[in-house]
Amino acid sequence: MIEQLRESTAALHQDLERTLIPVIKQANSPEAYIRLLQLFYGYYYPLEQYIAAHIDTSFPGGFDNRRKAALLLQDINVINGSPLDPPPTCTDIPEINDNGQALGAMYVLEGSTLGGQVICQIIQRNLPLPEITKALSFLNGYGEETRAKWDSFVLYLEGYHGTDEQKKRLVEAAANTFRQFKVWAQANA
């Protein structure tokens, strides 16, 4: 399943990266970093709501401890120095009506925790502020546990026993998650 996901979404993943990397590299002021975090929040928050509503309860450790939207708000508030109202959110979320589709969307979000650690280094280099280390909880993913959490997600995916149609929808959900995140980023960066 993981290889099928990688192969089916590789070009979409690269397209999204080409959209996000310039925005990430331009996060060289507190205001620009807040805008970057708001961009991610705007897509992650509604997507996580749909995932939570449809993920199978047998998912190891549950989904709640993998949510990232609250971390994004926390980082925004640290950089801002005080709470801000939550930013606007995306209304064009991929279709998620079952566990397979939730897993497809999670593939994108969980995979981003691996790349987040690289982005974290870029932000620290571009924004050398004393408080920056306290505003990297989203980008740090799961810290030292990031690889282990990814591996446990991959193991769960490999054990997914959906029908061929459900597996097809899982892959489509991952592809649509990449596609729609790119559209959101282009419109809001």
Task: Explain what this protein looks like in three dimensions.
- By secondary structure, the chain is an all-alpha fold.
- Helices cover 67% and strands 0% of the residues.
- It is globular and about 50 Å long.
- The mean pLDDT is 95.
Secondary-structure topology with pairs:
Elements: H1 2-25, H2 30-54, H3 69-80, H4 99-126, H5 146-158, H6 164-188
Helix pairs in contact: 1-6, 2-3, 2-4, 2-6, 4-5, 4-6
Concise synopsis of the structure shown:
The protein is an all-alpha fold and 189 residues long. Helix content is 67%, strand content 0%.
Which features would summarize this protein structure in a list?
189 residues; mainly alpha; 6 helices; 0% strand
Binned strand content: under 5%
Apparent shape: globular
In which range does the helix fraction lie? 55-70%
Mean pLDDT: 95
State the oligomer: single chain
Number of beta-strand segments: 0
